[in-house]
Structures are given as structure tokens and as C-alpha cells.
Specification:
heterooctamer, C: alpha/beta, Rossmann fold, 15 strands, 41% helix, globular, D: alpha/beta, seven-stranded mixed sheet, binds thiamine diphosphate, binds iron/sulfur cluster
Chain lengths: 70, 178, 355, 248, 355, 248, 70, 178
């Protein structure tokens, strides 16, 4: 049940909503990066923990996230 | 001398209040002043700018289409306003957030690492005061003392603690200008 | 009182309060939101009442009710909102109720843009609502002038029992300039013995109304209104004349555009061209005589009306000049602002051509 | 010799322009009597609508304003905010209140404006000659519904009282009728109560009064009363919907 | 087809149906009620849709929606109702949607009277709504002309993607005259490929909109609109000239008033005074050239604009005549109708004075 | 490898102008997904309001019209009457729908117009900078209610769904929220159902969606979700008010 | 319990509403008269039967009727 | 000859349809015609009037301010319109309901007891046709035959029974004019 989460990074507005709904708490803000809009974008660091539930994508107001089931 | 300044950056970078502080100081010094903001349906974090005029004479148009100076705090602002500076005018670039260089050579360009200095001082929010300090050093549009007088009035009582920080920011900005 | 920096919208609101305005009914719209917001904070402190209406239509009818009840009352909006008020304004003019209406004009038509414009000139001066009626329309060019005119607007309204419009553009509303609140000399005003206050001992009931079902009576009512308007035309016209002496070209411009034109005049001066400006402060009644006088000056070769519109006031300039000198137009619309440079170019083109 | 009934001082001497048998006249009288009996004539300010009752300002002896079509509640809001101690009322037809003025009445109710609305529901546009109103019944003919109101095209009649009763600050909502004497008495009671509630500052009150328009219904006045009873009341039940006691 | 007697309002409605109008959204108001009533009966029989809107504001926005969806659509009202439509009209003009708006004008201001008037001229021709925009305004003088113009109005609207107003007064709406329905030659019309019909296979989505958030774009949009308006001014002006040859005085009058003026002209003739008439059929674009030409005629001593208003079209006459000859005004307002006699008197007074 | 979630074709590529974390974005997506899943993108016509979602015409990939403030239901009525087989929807904020447009929504409901309204209730005016809406809660601060909404001055917040549910032809009325994933799923279901009901021609349907405006609430996007849950839902219960089954 | 009913005859519009509510059925239309408005006005012929209930007056939309108790 | 007629009376007296019938006949005879009603918020039974023009020439103003004839069916109409008849014009007065006499002597005045005649014929409603009959006799503005042709068209089939009644009314009206 592993998943793959892709972020369309430059669409991200750094709102952090996605980080609050991940059941395994792997979605975090990438404080090291600033995207074209000037925000720290969201990202997933430990992708192997992803259960492909799609919650982050469903919560994101800016359709930044695509979720695939491997 | 009439100072016609454009100040521009992201919302949240304090460009509006930078302009307001300057015109308040101008007024204190008996000058004619005006401050005209851009307005519109901008999302939080969108761009913002204001046109500031400080003059010995009555202010004509409050719009600034021929700027004696432009202070740009982010990249889109540089792209938009570089062309509006008059030949011989001043362009102040926040080099912390703008990696591009100015393209014109008929104007005076100053690179001020405002965010770096501000962060260095422990408060990213006063990058605008750093830029203002640099601008004042270049143009003398208002005296640093008048600015500080105004700031002291606004931040009195409990908030007075921020006054020295602002003073320091102005100074550090001015120091960037050799 | 020393000069203080005020944002135009807030200064307008404060000026109204200083003029004794106790009631404000409005609806949010950019770029005038600071007016209702200021009123929301301050009017209750003055024992007055701010109410956000459900719409501009409701707001203007609340103004009708409050004005009819004898209060000093104001509303403000911007172009689309003012369009919605047209029926109400026609009723207010018809029922002869005093009130102040502020229009901080933005670019149109339709939703347009929200940037500064002057494209509601016709609507304000010729009557955007149905029927024959007139409002005094005041057009300040600075925040200070806005403050002064708003204060006087209430007196004018009460003196004539007529709506008065203060028309600025987005710049007037949004910019900050030094202001001194100087008390405007109060006019001698008639008592509001016509107001519906409840009888409270009065014998005859008061009625606020604009219906005259007999055509002949309605005609008479119109005649009476226009006799009143004629009086306004006699006594209320205001206008700034600038640099007319020896001017080859005379600009017509009002509000902030007049200031841009002044920059242009200075630039022209540097190039050796003498230009002047007639700045109507009352858009209605229009300072026709000033233009006619200028048209009779031999040095004047042409007029150029500069507006943030596709050409509206220019018609009143033409009507005033009566064909004695050519009248040209230059404008930007939809929220775009003419630059001094472009105005200079235009003037030179005309003088080249008008030789 | 005692007076059982005589003309109230709340009405002027002016004779109305209403059609013979039009129950607008009855409703005017009930309002005027209520004001007189409550001692409110001296501080009452009424708002006439645009509709058959457009000349109401000539008939009520208190101060009056003529509002634009549908906007009487906005007008009354302006008046009442200026004179909070006055007894302010709007008198509105169903076209005026339920169609063009729907937003204004909903919002006056929402804000709990402390005035009283007399809502005359005659299921038609009277003054303009019998067009369909929001309250026109299914199948009822109107000049703009020549085959009768069709619910698939024009929807179901709007029950204003029921709708406004969902609004918390509409503290008094009652539907009455004037098709016979007992109902006229009840209507009077409701109107009087609405004014009392206003003067106590409890919130917004509305009395919906079922009324006839014999002219545009194409009936005699007497037939019209019967039609009201048999056709309107089943859809518009006579009922109290909100009472201030409830909201306390 | 033989001539039949038709009431103006009903004839207007029938003409619209004949022109392919399938949708009508309106709200009752005297003196135009027969239009919606006729539509209510007839449109469903034609497979179209009549809907009584909750208000004039809603009606004009239904028109916006239906026009944007590609339909031939009409609304009608009278003065106060037209005031309420001003915001919507500005949107329709801004979004460049074709539709026909009928105004059967009554006396104002406010509730006014309900008798015939022409006091919405300014509102119709200068823009009662906010922003810079124009409508073609057609002013029939007889029921027959109303029928012809309404039919063509739909084509004009479609050709330019612009609202067209047909403006009559209460008399046009209420009177009965013989009418022959003659098919108007159809114009070559562009496809409505911009309409929101649902994609239905189309690749790019269509958007109906009047918002141009960038001032420069909104300015450009205005320039485009005015380029279109210039084209209308080139090709759509209509005007009747009557008896101009040798006329000492030229009347300006439109609609039914022009007919009253014709009576007056005949009376004047009997008294040996030659008078002519210029009757604008399009109030916008205004037949300026016709007036200018007349002003250049040596026999013409003066112009007299006769209106059922306090003086509105007279400004356009003045603008056209450019000060070459004096322009006078005579009018009745609030629903009162000028009599031929009074017009004759007025003309004689002027000719006495203008010698 | 299976796609669990990807951007719907119902949305264009254009990035929105909404503030970070603004739930308008979620609601747009739910509408677009519903249209795509029901195969309606090819015959959908949307109506954008005046409000923060004024640019919705740039974001939805179907045909769109931009209506004047509050009049989207009138505009949609015009469209739907012309193209009865289309899937027509309005997308409206609470200022747009519940304040200036109150008459239009009530009457679209009364007529049973066969379109779908997505009503975004964020208890404030977003686009114009945080003025009080009819839906602003008691005590909630707004730029035109600087001390918080006072019920004695400005009345009680309008519960639009409850009010419209009294109208017979409003056959589907449901309030949902988007403050967490389960509620987002429920919201999607309601929106989809509303479109299905429209396509069946049953009457008018409205889905009220509780939404955030972190900017004008003065909160972070995450705080705003919490505030919605804790403050809005108690006053605006998440609930189905009308279902077409009921009206049959 | 006798009553006296007075009609302000020229105000009467001949609508007949008063005639329908009289419990003793004494209010009738005076077909012999035409008032200033051109209507047959209402009247009471057998006044002695009147019980002064006031019903006719309360029903009349045009405040034509005054009722007194003797 | 141009006939410019004002017809006035209570609502319900059929003045509007009297005017309509006359213009229909005029049209049939190839004349130019117009019919302009008064309109307004009149209660049932209020007053009503219309202006009718029948002419060889195109109709100018549809308003009648200088009437060649006025037909007044009730007293208020007499008071209002007597003054509008041109010298030498005709004034027809419904003497059944108007006890007043005309005051002018520069016009031809005819008293027609229209309601009495109509009642006599068993239908008060056709008093208007009686007046029309009298008017036609006086002016010849249209032929009685054309009027009857039109009436026969309108009342065909089941309603045809009223046609003779109308004919009779026209005749009885004409008979009043000596
Ligand atoms: C803005 C506007 N629209 C329309 C009208 C025309 N009008 C006058 S009264 C009326 C409706 C009357 O109906 P209703 O409110 O039901 O009252 P009633 O006459 O039945 O008592 C209308 C539409 C108007 N005067 N103003
Ligand atoms: C006639 C008119 N009045 C006012 C406005 C200004 N205006 C633009 S958006 C808006 C309200 C937005 O609030 P809401 O509908 O709640 O939507 P949100 O922005 O919160 O999504 C207003 C009042 C306008 N454009 N037109
Ligand atoms: S929810 Fe979307 S926009 Fe917000 S931080 Fe996550 S990915 Fe970025
Ligand atoms: S038209 Fe109807 S509502 Fe109006 S006065 Fe006559 S009966 Fe009454
Ligand atoms: S202002 Fe509020 S509603 Fe508008 S985009 Fe920002 S968060 Fe969303
Ligand atoms: S109810 Fe009144 S108006 Fe009607 S008949 Fe009786 S007295 Fe006359």
C-alpha cells in the first residue's frame, strides 16, 4: 500500500493545510526552499511511509499535489 | 528639489509603511507631501507599491510616472519599475531577494542586502527600515532625526522598545551607501 | 490645528462627521471602503448611527428615509454601486431631500477595473436616473479640498433641499495628504419643518413624496425644481483659473487630473509654451462663463479637455465655448491615468495644428 | 347614546381611490385605529409603498413618506434609526414586498429593525393591472400568466410569513385575513400587538393580511371575499408564526 | 398584409417576436404593461419563454445571461424601472452583449407621474450607468415606425454586439394606429461563436465578462468599444428632414413630439412663416451633420428644440450647431404634452427676437 | 501504479489568485470534479459572482459568465431558460448571495429554477477587505463592525439554508463544510447530488459550503479551519435540509 | 339594545360588503338612489331591527358607516 | 377634413370601445387614424377618455387639444372638455346623466339622452353606440355601414345576436339629430 506524492512546487502557497491532514504526518514544509512565489513549499521527506490515502491532495486548495498508489 | 519615489515589493514587506513614515517625516519638516498606494484585489503576499512625493512646492500629480528614485524590494518590482526612474535618478535594489542586476546605466543603482541585514539584527520585518536608511543617506529627502522623532511618537509606552531597533536599521541601511 | 496626514476616504468621513453628519448608510465597494469603515468606528462614538445596508439600492433608500426624517445623512459608493442608486437619487431629487452622496469613481463600464476614473461625469451631471433633475456635483482635487467641500456639501444640501454629490476618483480616496480641518462658515439654513418626525403636536401631517399623479402638477413641480436649479446656477458655481494670462491653450480638467495637467503646464512652460487651466470645482452647475470668457481671450487658440474617461466633460466645455474656439479632448479610460508627458505631447500637437 | 363605531382620527377625511369593495380600505382603518387606540398617532411615521396603496400618505393622518417600489423597509430603517422613539410602519403589497423588495424585507427582519410591516397579500399586482405576483396561486390567472400560474414555469407561491419566521429577529409574524368580521377583529388585534411589540423595542414585526382585489380577480367584491376564503386560506393558513414570548 | 390597428405596446411586442426574439424578461410598470402581457401570451406559442422577473434589476441580469447564452432577448420597462437597470446595462455594454431594451418613458423625477415624457434622453444617450459606453437609441414617432425599428433593433444589436434601446413615450405605447408588418431586410450577421452554450465539443471555453483588472487592459477595452461606436456613428445615424427648404426656423423634435411639431409647422405656414423640422430617429448616434448643414443654410435663423422634458436633446442640438445659429428650447415636463399652439407661439417669439 | 488523486480537467491550468490556504480553492475543485465525473463539462455553464471568486471564469474550464454583484441567480436563470439541457451553476459568496442578492436567490428558489447554486459562506466579505456579511457571527469583528457584530444593532446572522428550505421548489438544500478531509468528501457528495438533481429537472438546488477567509479573519490558514469548526458549525449546523425524495 | 346606523352616503362605493355581514340582514342597497360617485348607496330600511353590533361598519372599506347604541 | 374627437365618461360607459370602433371603421374606409387613450391608476368606475383622429392626411399629433368634436358621457367630462372644442365644432352631451347645459355658444351642442334610449332598448350598455350614431349623423366621419361591417366581424358566430341591437342603437342615436 505504498504511495507516491508529487508536488507541483511552484503552485504551492505554503499554507500548511496539507500538513495537518496527513495520517502518518509525513507532509512538511520545506524551510530550505523558496518557490517562485516566495513561499516555502510543502514536501514529503519520508515517502516510503506514504499510505496513498490522498488526504493531503484533497485538502490542498491549490491542486499542488498528485497522489499515486504504487 | 522634488522627490518622487516609487516603493514596491511583496505585501508584508512593509513598503506601504515605509512610504508613510517618509511622508510623515516630510510633513514634520514642513514639506509638501503625498502618498498614493496601489490598491486592488491582491491576495495576501501579492505585490504592492506606493508613490511618494516630498517637495518644497505644492504637490501636483500624486502619481509618480517619472521617479527620482525607486526602492524595489522584490524581483517583480524591479522588472516593473526600473524603467520609470528618470535619468540620473536612484534605484535601490533589495539584493537579498533580487539576484538580478539593473539593466540601465543612466541611473545610480544601489544594492542593499536588506533582508540579510534585518535578519542579522534579529527581525526580518525591518528590512524596509534598512532600505529607508539607505535611501535617506543617498537623497536626504528627510532627516534621520525627523524619522526617529516620528517613530518615537508612534511607538510610545510599552512598544517603545522597538525604537532603538528602528534607529539601528536606518543606520545599517545608511552604512551600505558609501 | 496643525496639518495631519489623512487618507482621502477617511478624511472625507471625518469631514462629514465634523459637518454634523450623524447617519451613514452604505455598502462595501473598492475604492471607497475606508469611508464606511471609518464611519462604523466613529459614528457610534458621536451618538450617530452607521449601518451597512444589504445593497446600494437599500442604502440610498435608507438615506431617503433618514433625510426625510430630518437627519444629516450621507452615503458613499463607487461606480457600479452608484448606478444601482440611480432610481433612489431620482426619488430623492424629486422629493427634494437633502443628503450627500460620495462617488469614488473607478473604471468602467460593467465591472471594469477598480482603478481611478472619471467616467461617471455624465451620470452625475446630466442625471443618470430618470426624469429631469439636477444635483450639485463637487469635484475635489486634493484631500484638503475634499475635506472642505464635504463639510460644505451638507449645508448646500440643506439650503436647497437637494442631494449633493461629491465625486472623486480612486486617487482622491486612496492617497494620503496633509489636511487641516478648518471650520467652514455655516450658512443660514431654513428649518426642516417639512421633515417627518412624527406630528409631536404639529397640526398638519408632513408628507415626503415625489408622486404628482396629474401631469400638469408634475409639470409645475418640474418648473419649481428648475427654478431652484437656476438659483444654484447663479450662486454655487466654483472654479479655479490657473495661468490663463497669455495662455495659448487652455486645459479643462477636474479633480486629480487637474493636478497632472498642472505638471504638464509647467513642462510646457519650460518649452516656452504658455498654457492655462480652468478647473471646474462644481461639475454641475458648470462654470460656463469662465470658459466663455477664456474663449473670448485673443491669446487662446484652443481648449483641451483632459479626463480619465473617453470624453464626457468635453461636451460641457464645447457647450460653454459656443464654437468660438476649437475644443479638443485627450483621455485615458478604464482606470488608466494620463501622464503629464502625454498631455504635453497632445497640447503641442494641437498647437501645431491649430495655427 | 353610545358610539359603537365611528371613523378613527388616524385617517384623514380624504376619500380613497380604491375600487369598490377593495379591502385595502379595511386594512388602512385597522392600522389607523390601532395607532389611535395606542396613543401613537402623534409619533407615528408611516411609509407608503408603490402599489394600489401608493396614496396611503393622503389617507393616514400621521406623518408619512412615499417610498420607491419595494424599498419601504429600507426607507423605514432610515426613519426609525433617526427617530427610535417613533412608531414606524410600512404598508406594502405583495408585489412590493415579496417581489422587488424581497431583499429589503428579509434584511429588515434579519437586523430586527424595530418597525412594523403591514403586508397586504392579495395574490396579484393591483395597481398595474393584474400581473402575476409571487403570491399568485397555482392556476390563478393573471395578465402575465394568461393561462394561470404554472408551477413548472413560475414556481410555487411564496409563503412570506413562513419564510420570515425562520429569521431570529423577526419576533412577531402573523397571518390574518379581513374577509369577514371575526377575522377583521383578529386582524386588528394582531396589528395592535405588532405596534406594541415595536414600542417595547423587541424586534421586527410583520402582519400579513390576506386581502381581495375584485377588479383584477374579475369578481364582484362579495365574490372576491368568498374566493379569498376558499382559495387563499388553504394555501396561506391564518396563523401566528412567531411571538416575542417565544424568543425570550 | 393589410394594415391593422395595433396598440403601440402590443405592436412592439409582436414586432420583436417577428424579429426572432424568443426570450423576454420584464417586470410590470405603467405605461408599458401590454408588452410583457402580450409576450406572456404569445412567446410560449412560439416556443420561446416569457418570464416575469422579481424586479427590473433581476430582469436586466436575466437578459445578460440569456444574451450571453446566444439568444435574441428583450426587456422593457418605463423610467424608474430603467433607472434600476443602469448597472446591468453598463455590464451588458461592457461585456458586449446584444439585446433590445424598450423604455416607454413617463414623467419624472422619482415616482413622478405616469404620463408620457421624454425626460430619459440623457440617461439613454449619455449613459445613465457608470463608465464610458454607448447604446444605439431608436426613437419611433408612430406605431408603424416602432414596429419597423424594433425589428431592425435586433439585427443592429447582433451586428455590433451591443445593447440597443427603443425609446418611446407613453403615447407611443398606449395609442392605436394602423400597422403593416413588413419584413425588414435581414443584415449579414456575424456568428455568435462567443456565446456560452456549453462547450459541446468546442476546445476553448467561452467567457462573458466585463472585468479587466489591469487598468491598461481596461483602457484598451474602452478604446476598442469606442472604435466600435465610431463605426456605429458612421453607418447607423437616421434622421427625418421635413420642410427645411426656406425654413426660417428649424425645429428639433423626436418621437411623438415631432408629430405635434408638424401640426405647429402647418399652423405657422398658414400664418406665412416657413418652419422646418429635423427629427432624429437615432438619438444616439445623433444626426449632428444634419443640424450642422441646416445651421449653414442662410435662411435658417434659429433652432428650437421641443421636448417633453426640461431640456435635454437641446444640448446635442447645440453641440451640433456649434454656435452658428442660436438654439432655443421649449418643453413641458412631468407628463404634460406641448400643444401645437404653444409651439407656434414660442416660434413666433423667437423669430420676433432673432431678427 | 494507479492515480489516487490528480487535478481534474474541470479546472484550467491557471493558478488562482486566492490567498494561501483559502478554501475557495477546495470548493472550486469539488465543483469541477463533480462536473467531470458526471460527464457534464461539455454542457456546463458556470456563473461567477462578484467577490473573491470573481475570476472563477478563469479557473473553470467550462463556459462561464461573470455576473454583476448578487445577480448570478438572475443571470443563470437567463442562461438556463435558453439552454435547458445545460448544467448551469452559480458560485456565490455570502455577501453576494445573502446580502445584495437576497431577492434573486429567493426568487430563483421560488421559481424552482433548474440550476445549482454553490454558496460559499465564509462569514465575511473577502474581496473588499473584511466587511461584515449577513452571515458574520455575533461578536465576530469585521472592518464595518470594528467592535464585533452586535445583535441589537445588526441583527442575528442569516441562516440562508434554513430560510430557503421553507420554499417548496428549493428541492435540494444542504449545508456542508470543507474544514477537514471527511467533510470535504461529504461536500463533494452534496455538490454532485445537486447537479444530478438539476439534470433530472427536479427543481432548484443549493449547497451551502462553510469556508474560511484566513486573511480577513486575521488568522493563519490552519487556525482558520479550527475557527470555522468551533465557531461557525455550532451556528450553521452541517445538515441536509431538503431532499427531492421529500418533495415527491 | 337598539342601534342607529348612519351612512355618509356620498362616500359609499356600492360594493355591498356591508350587506353580507349584517346578522339581522337589514343593510341593503338603495336602488332608487344614485350618489355623487354614480353608485347606489347602502342604507338601512328597518332601523328598529338594528342590534348595534357594528358589523356593517367594520366590514365597510370606506368608513361610510357610523353605528351608535341607543 | 380631419376629425379630431375627444370621447369621455365613467369607466364602464364604453368610451374607449366607442373610439376603437370609430377608428376601425375609419381604417376600413382608407383614412388615416389614431386612437390615444388616457391611462392611469383609475379605480374601477373612475373617469376615462380617448382622443380619436380620422383624417385624409397623415395623422400628426395623436393628441387632441383642438377638438372638432367632443362626446361627453358624464358631468366631469363635460366640465373638463367643453373648452377644448374649436369654435364651430360639435359637443355631444349625454343628457341622461348630465343635467347641466353647455356654456359656450360658439359651438354646436347636441343633447342626446343616450342612457334613456339604451335602457329603453333593454341594454344600458349600448348608450355609447347611441352617442356614436348621433356623432356619425352630425359629422359623417365614417359611414354607418362601415361601422356595422366591423361590428359584424367582431361579433360573429354565437355573439352575432348583438349585431342588430348595435345597428338599432346607431339609428336611434342618429334619429336624435334633426
Ligand atoms: C421600480 C418600479 N417598478 C415597477 C413599478 C410599477 N408598479 C407600480 S405598483 C406595482 C405593483 C403593485 O402590486 P402590489 O405590490 O401587489 O400592490 P397592490 O397594487 O396589489 O396593492 C408595480 C409593479 C414602479 N412604480 N416602480
Ligand atoms: C454593485 C456592487 N457593489 C459592491 C461591489 C463590491 N464588492 C466586490 S466583492 C464584494 C463582496 C464580496 O464578499 P462575498 O460575496 O462574501 O465573497 P468573498 O469575497 O467573501 O468570497 C463586494 C461588496 C461591487 N463590485 N458591485
Ligand atoms: S495545501 Fe497545497 S498550497 Fe498549501 S502548503 Fe500544502 S501543497 Fe502548498
Ligand atoms: S386594483 Fe385591486 S387592490 Fe387595487 S384598489 Fe382595485 S381592488 Fe383594490
Ligand atoms: S480574502 Fe479571504 S476569501 Fe478572499 S481569497 Fe483571501 S482568504 Fe480567500
Ligand atoms: S361596505 Fe361601505 S362602501 Fe360598500 S356598500 Fe356598504 S357602505 Fe357602501
Amino acid at each position: 500500500m505504498a504511495g507516491k506524492v508529487t508536488f507541483d512546487e511552484n503552485r504551492c502557497k505554503g499554507c500548511e493545510l496539507c500538513t495537518t491532514v496527513c495520517p502518518v504526518k509525513i507532509v512538511i514544509m520545506d524551510k530550505d526552499k523558496i518557490n517562485i512565489k516566495g513561499y516555502h513549499p510543502a514536501t514529503v521527506k519520508e515517502m516510503d511511509k506514504c499510505i496513498a490515502c490522498g488526504s493531503c491532495a484533497r485538502m490542498c486548495p491549490d491542486v499542488v499535489i498528485t497522489v499515486e498508489k504504487l | 528639489m522634488t522627490h518622487q519615489i516609487i516603493m514596491a515589493g511583496f505585501g508584508g514587506q512593509g513598503v506601504m509603511s515605509m512610504g508613510k513614515i517618509l511622508v510623515e517625516a516630510g510633513l514634520k519638516e514642513g514639506k509638501n507631501v503625498s502618498w498614493l498606494p496601489s490598491y486592488g484585489p491582491e491576495m495576501r503576499g501579492g505585490t504592492a507599491n506606493c508613490s511618494v512625493i516630498i517637495s518644497e512646492e505644492p504637490v501636483g500629480a500624486p502619481t509618480v510616472t517619472e521617479a527620482t528614485a525607486a526602492i524595489v524590494m522584490n524581483r517583480p518590482s524591479l522588472d516593473k519599475f526600473e524603467k520609470d526612474v528618470i535619468p540620473g535618478g536612484d534605484l535601490l535594489i533589495n539584493s537579498s531577494l533580487i539576484d538580478k542586476k539593473a539593466t540601465r546605466d543612466d541611473i545610480n543603482v544601489y544594492y542593499v542586502p536588506a533582508n540579510e541585514i534585518a535578519n542579522d539584527m534579529g527581525s526580518g520585518k525591518i528590512a524596509n527600515m534598512v532600505m529607508l536608511g539607505a535611501y535617506l543617506k543617498i537623497t536626504g529627502a528627510a532627516k534621520e532625526d525627523t524619522i526617529m522623532e516620528y517613530i518615537a511618537e508612534v511607538f510610545s509606552g510599552k512598544k517603545a522598545s522597538v525604537v532603538p531597533l528602528n534607529k539601528e536599521a536606518l543606520k545599517r541601511g545608511a552604512d551600505c551607501i558609501k | 490645528m496643525a496639518k495631519e496626514l489623512w487618507k482621502g476616504n477617511e478624511a472625507i468621513a471625518e469631514a462629514a462627521i465634523k459637518a454634523g453628519c450623524k447617519y451613514f448608510f452604505g455598502y462595501p465597494i473598492t475604492p471607497q471602503n475606508e469611508i464606511p469603515e471609518y464611519m462604523a468606528l466613529k459614528l457610534p462614538q458621536e451618538g450617530g448611527c452607521f449601518l451597512q445596508a444589504e445593497s446600494e439600492v437599500a442604502a440610498i433608500n435608507m438615506v431617503y428615509g433618514a433625510a426625510g426624517a430630518g437627519a444629516r445623512v450621507m452615503t458613499s459608493s463607487s461606480s457600479p454601486g452608484i448606478s444601482l442608486k440611480q432610481e433612489g437619487i431620482s426619488y430623492i431629487a424629486g422629493a427634494e431631500l437633502p443628503c450627500v452622496i460620495v462617488n469614488i469613481v473607478r473604471g468602467g463600464p460593467g465591472l471594469g477595473s477598480i482603478q481611478p476614473a472619471q467616467s461617471d461625469y455624465f451620470q452625475a451631471t446630466k442625471g443618470g436616473g430618470h426624469g429631469d433633475y439636477r444635483m450639485i456635483v463637487l469635484a475635489p482635487a486634493s484631500v484638503q479640498e475634499a475635506v472642505d467641500l464635504v463639510q460644505e456639501a451638507f449645508d448646500i444640501a440643506d439650503q436647497y433641499r437637494n442631494p449633493v454629490m461629491v465625486m472623486g476618483d480612486g486617487m482622491i480616496g486612496q492617497m494620503m495628504e496633509p489636511v487641516e480641518f478648518v471650520e467652514i462658515p455655516k450658512r443660514q439654513l431654513p428649518e426642516k419643518d417639512w421633515a417627518t418626525t412624527g406630528l409631536r403636536g404639529r397640526k398638519e401631517h408632513n408628507v415626503i413624496n415625489s408622486l404628482y399623479i396629474e401631469a400638469s402638477q408634475c409639470d409645475k413641480h418640474n418648473e419649481d425644481l428648475f427654478a431652484k436649479y437656476a438659483k444654484m446656477e447663479e450662486t454655487e458655481i466654483r472654479c479655479e483659473e490657473y495661468n490663463l494670462e497669455g495662455a495659448e491653450i487652455v486645459f479643462a480638467a477636474y479633480g486629480t487630473v487637474a493636478r497632472i495637467v498642472k505638471n504638464a503646464i509647467k513642462s510646457l512652460e519650460k518649452e516656452g509654451i504658455k498654457a492655462g487651466l480652468i478647473r471646474p470645482i462644481t461639475l454641475w452647475p458648470f462654470p460656463k462663463a469662465n470658459f466663455l470668457k477664456a474663449a473670448d481671450m485673443p491669446n487662446v487658440k484652443a481648449f483641451l479637455s483632459v479626463e480619465m474617461s473617453m470624453g464626457q466633460m468635453v461636451e460641457d466645455v464645447e457647450l460653454s465655448v459656443k464654437g468660438k474656439k476649437p475644443v479638443y479632448f485627450y483621455g485615458k479610460a478604464g482606470g488608466a491615468i494620463p501622464t503629464p508627458k502625454a498631455i504635453v505631447e497632445e497640447a503641442k500637437k494641437i498647437l501645431g495644428g491649430a495655427k | 347614546m353610545a358610539i359603537v363605531f365611528q371613523k378613527t382620527k388616524g385617517l384623514t377625511e380624504k376619500q380613497t381611490h380604491y375600487c369598490p369593495g377593495c379591502t385595502h380600505g379595511i386594512i388602512h382603518r385597522l392600522v389607523a385605529e390601532s395607532l389611535e387606540e395606542l396613543g401613537l398617532l402623534d409619533k407615528a411615521i408611516g411609509v407608503a409603498p408603490v402599489g394600489c396603496s401608493v396614496f396611503a400618505y393622503d389617507y393616514f393622518s400621521c406623518d408619512m413618506q412615499e417610498a420607491s417600489h419595494g424599498r419601504a423597509p429600507a426607507c423605514a430603517t432610515g426613519i426609525k434609526r433617526v427617530h427610535p422613539d417613533s412608531a414606524v410602519f410600512t404598508y406594502q403589497g405583495d408585489g412590493d414586498l415579496a417581489s422587488i423588495g424581497a431583499a429589503e424585507i428579509v434584511h429588515a427582519a434579519m437586523r430586527g429593525e424595530k418597525f412594523t410591516t403591514i403586508f397586504v397579500n392579495n395574490a396579484i399586482y393591483g395597481m398595474t393591472g393584474g400581473q402575476m405576483a409571487p403570491t399568485t396561486l397555482i392556476g390563478q390567472k393573471a395578465t402575465t400568466a394568461p393561462l394561470g400560474r404554472d408551477e413548472n414555469h413560475a414556481g410555487m407561491p411564496l409563503r412570506v410569513s413562513e419564510m420570515l419566521a425562520t429569521i431570529p429577529k423577526a419576533v412577531f409574524v402573523e397571518r390574518v385575513s379581513v374577509h369577514d368580521v371575526p377575522n377583521i377583529m383578529k386582524a386588528k388585534k394582531a396589528i395592535k400587538k405588532a405596534f406594541e411589540i415595536q414600542m417595547k423595542g423587541l424586534g421586527f414585526g410583520i402582519v400579513e393580511v390576506l386581502s381581495t382585489c375584485s377588479t383584477n380577480w374579475g369578481k364582484t367584491p362579495v365574490e372576491a371575499l368568498k374566493w379569498l376564503k376558499e382559495n387563499m386560506i388553504p394555501y396561506y393558513p391564518i396563523q401566528n408564526f412567531r411571538n416575542p414570548e417565544e424568543v425570550k
